[in-house]
Amino acid sequence: MSARTVDDERLLRFAIWGELQADPGTSAVAPSTLQRLGLYKGQRGIWVNKERTADVTDDGVGVTVSLAHTGTVYDDDLSDEGIIYRYPRTGMPGRDKNEIAATKAASRMGIPVFVIATSAESSSLRRVRLGWVAEWDDRTEQFLVMFGEEPRQVDVAPDEDEPFSTIEAQSKRLTLTARRAGQAQFHFGVFMRYGPRCAVCPLNVPQVLDTPHVVPVAARGTNDPRNGLVMCATHHRAFDSHLFGIEPDSLRIRFAAKGPDARRLGIVVSDLAGLGKKPHPDAVEWRWEYWHKHAHVSSD
User: What global pTM score does this model have?
Assistant: First the structure.
């Protein structure tokens, strides 16, 4: 039997996608159908089907076929446009390493993957999306997968001198859909920019870190990663509650006059100067003025 090629595998996946769209559709699929089509096996989060895809890669690792999203084992960021999928940690280092390599291979070779999640119609059914592994970050151990029938260009690491706007285009309406648009790219890009550590405390566990906007989404803040910071859930909430602000010129942390101080909040830095990269000055200036409307600077 001749070796399987990249084109063979890509065409097969589009054929499977066409069958899923025709009957029964991609929003409510029985697990038995997924197994029949070779999209899923057992309880694996990442399914490679090495028997079929090993010949596609030079190293024999194969190419990831599907990513299963449960929302319980890993707190993946799933939206209508894509998913942030965490590297596997099954306790079997060899298998984890190969599954990560196979997922990267899908990206390098331009082969789509299937993202499988529980259907909104029934917990016993599955929803299937066609996606493309757009980026990965070994520091935070995450993949960015964007949905669609063609690969999408994403810009998760803009150059510092690229034009920056604090506010999204006026055409975007403040609907739930608009609020979520670009969120996966933003979250991934902010992590790539700063690394997996809270900006104001030592916490460095990606699963409990957030990516708050400096200019908030409610004010149509841009999803440019330069409008973000990495914070733990506690300090994200404190930031959004106006308990502390960031002085633009010095990047010094300032606290509300009648609110808790650094010790009570568990903030261990006096400023953000130690960050390798900084949020965009325009975003920090906007947030400083916004903060002054909601809190008073303490004298500390």
Answer: 0.86
